[in-house]
Write a structure and sequence with these properties.
The chain contains 25 helices and four strands. It has 640 residues and is mainly alpha-helical.
Amino acid sequence: VHGDITDGKSLISQQNGIEVEPINMFLCSVCYSLMDIDRDHFYKVLHLEENQQKIKSFCTDSQIKILLVSKSALTDGNSSVEVIFRTEITPSDTISHSIAFVKRNVFHMPDKKKNGKDHQEISTQFQVINLGYYGSDYSPFELTHNYVQNCFVPIFSNYKSVMENTKQGGTQDSSKSFNTLQKKLAELNLALIQCQQNIEVPEIILQIEPEVKEKVAAAKIAGKKATTEDFGDSLNSSTFIQALVQCVLKWTQDITALIKYPEKFELASTLQEVNFWLSYERALNHIDQQIKQPEVELTLEILKNRKKFSYVMAFENDMQFKPALMNCISNNSFMKEFPINDLLAAGTMQEVSTALSLIFNHMKKVISLESYSTGRLLTFLEAISRDLNTQLLKILTGFKLMQIPYKEFQNIIQECSQIFKKWDNDYQSFKYSMRNHGKKLGNPNFEHQLLNDRLKKLLEFRTQHEKLREVIESILMKESGPSSSAKDAMFLTTHDIQDAYTLFYNIDVLDLSKEGDNAIASAIKNYNFKIDSVENQITNKLKDKLGSTNNANDMLRILSKFNALFFRPHIKGAIQEYQVQLLKTVKKDIQQLREKFLRHYDMTDTAKLSKTRDIPPTAGKVIWANQIKRKLKVYMAVSY
């Protein structure tokens, strides 16, 4: 494709004896894949002399650590794109699709003469970061958070596990340093989340009439306070007075809108609510400072002088600014120290549980807070539930719930259940305290309940699957034992059951959306279809074996061996006719056993035989009774 221009470019790529063409080819392969760009155009721009010089500097200069390749649309109206190579990040890169190539600390130019183990692959020399349109599509905070949470944190967690398992963790000091590093990563991750959820309430600037501003400034220079007398004939000017009225009306309108701003704010997370009230107090304090300025006081004084009391009253009293400020300060006394960070930084179930305790202990402060409405409080609790759900999902995502051993799975689900139970207990206690203060909470919609229901469903499913698998393995183990002479269970196998279970390996069982519900339902349906096939095979084999028995003892032996499988309704129903037939025989045998017992030991042939063998009468009675007891146990086993 590039044959027409390769010869001319190779001289540039080999200038000063440095071979950069392998680097060029590597850049092409990466950018072709990650950028939607015309290959010939990119190849041509790449081999421009100025760009080759930048690539050479990047490869040879130890001070240059990054090569940035950016693609942006031209502003001349055509559909072509501009490709730019830089060795540093500039503001213009925030509106371009950018890919960063970062050199490793130890960087070597590739040498074609080296082969074997000494040959350094180019791909191992760079770290490639796809920045995308991080200035327009998403913020740098979101980009960094995505890398930290989904890449760096798991890398260090897995690395720690590997070191602990292989006992290469080093000394206690190094382990402590590693834990500190993980804690700092968690703090960084939390800080990035906070930056994304900062809420900035718009600040209002009170516009002052120019003449008022001028008079106040002149009076300040003169070292005195401006008064209404300073305006002279302007006080009789309807135009001037009307301008002041419009100013006050605008102030009243803007401040009223800000006072009603909390009603319009829709909180998505706990942190947003906390940040909102902090920002809201700053905005109200900013207005309060402006209201106390001499320009505002003088404007109101002039309107009072001209009998414009209605506008002044509307500004000073009707919009209820002071109560709004006091309510905001009161709410912030609750919000400022709200311990949501402990929950958002939690990395284990125990840390989540501890964070919940701190949260509900802190929630007691809001019970006596009249400025925070019950409706908003209920929404706030729902936001905490969403954050709890999100944090638990982050922790659970680190486990492959459908692939880890069943015991480990059980422990994880139990820990989650304890957290959900703790929430229910703490919430009910909080709700009871609210009721004692005359406040009634409505019906909440806690998002974490969806996760609770999903985990219960998974636990129920895995328990049933594990029970079936263990029963079959137990039967096979007894069958393969040295004491087993009849090989009745040779047709059993766990292969088909495990094959059906693998359907859950490729789906996200923690996806709580409608699509996730459909995926789980579809997997369970397909699983049950395969298990039904396995059960049909088992019942057919059991019917064949039961049908070929010659007496009740053989039938009893087979049913006793496969009795553990009868918890499956399909299998139990299929062999029920044989059980009924056997129960009739067993009932008859038990009746005969009863009659034998009632005849007493002295009247039986066993007593006579014991006497000929010199067995004492008492010992003979014990042996005879134990024989009857043993037979009775065998018969009773059939009825279960």
